Automatic annotation (TrEMBL):
Keywords: Membrane, Transmembrane, Transmembrane helix. The chain crosses the membrane at residues 12-39, 60-87. Pfam families: DUF4190. It comes from the Bacteria. Residues 12-74 form the DUF4190 domain. This is DUF4190 domain-containing protein. InterPro entries: DUF4190.
Length: 88
């Protein structure tokens, strides 16, 4: 019985973890999300060039990172607007 296992790309797994963290942590999630995007793009490029697994994981990491960045920016804009408009 032979089992064919392909290695999952490490950058894909890390990008998914960072994408999830960017959704959860306020303010720090912005930086973590940017790093997650770069790692996801790197993982997708590596997966295209090699026969590694993890394309779906890298795509999920990319999506989570982008959503995390958007949520963090909305949080920052909302906080700033509360500060500026509550003074009046």
């Amino acid at each position: 019985m032979s089992t064919s296992t392909t290695k999952t790309n490490t950058n894909a797994v890390i990008s998914l973890c960072l994408g999830i963290v960017s959704l959860i942590l306020p303010f720090v999630g912005l930086l973590v999300g940017v790093i997650g995007i770069f790692l996801a793009k790197s993982a997708l490029t590596q997966i295209e060039q090699s026969s590694e697994a993890g394309k779906g994981i890298a795509s999920a990491g990319l999506v989570c990172s982008v959503i995390g960045i958007v949520l963090q920016l909305l949080l920052i804009i909302g906080g700033l607007s509360l500060v500026f408009f509550s003074i009046a």
